[in-house]
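Here is the promised in-class demo. Please do not try to memorize the tokens; focus on the logic of going from shape to residues.
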């Protein structure tokens, strides 16, 4: 079962990985292959973070309106990334 706490823990883990990757980009500047791998993974992490935040917001909105937060669904990356900021 997905809970707000488990989503928050996943977000924390992804943020830590994002920070590590950003640090790795600087260290890997001379190795194009590693740098490309870091950039690819960073993009994946950022998308996953957006999806987690979206799910957490859905759950909280459902709770606010007396609906079951467990009915919230993870949205695909294309949908989440298409939101206007």
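The designed amino acids, position by position:
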């Amino acid at each position: 079962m997905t809970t707000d706490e488990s989503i928050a823990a996943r977000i924390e883990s992804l943020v830590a990985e994002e920070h590590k990757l950003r640090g790795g980009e600087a260290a890997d500047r001379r190795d194009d292959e590693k740098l490309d791998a870091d950039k690819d993974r960073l993009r994946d992490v950022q998308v996953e973070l957006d999806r987690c935040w979206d799910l957490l917001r859905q759950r909280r909105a459902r709770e606010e309106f007396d609906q079951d937060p467990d009915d919230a669904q993870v949205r695909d990356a294309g949908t989440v990334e298409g939101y206007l900021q």
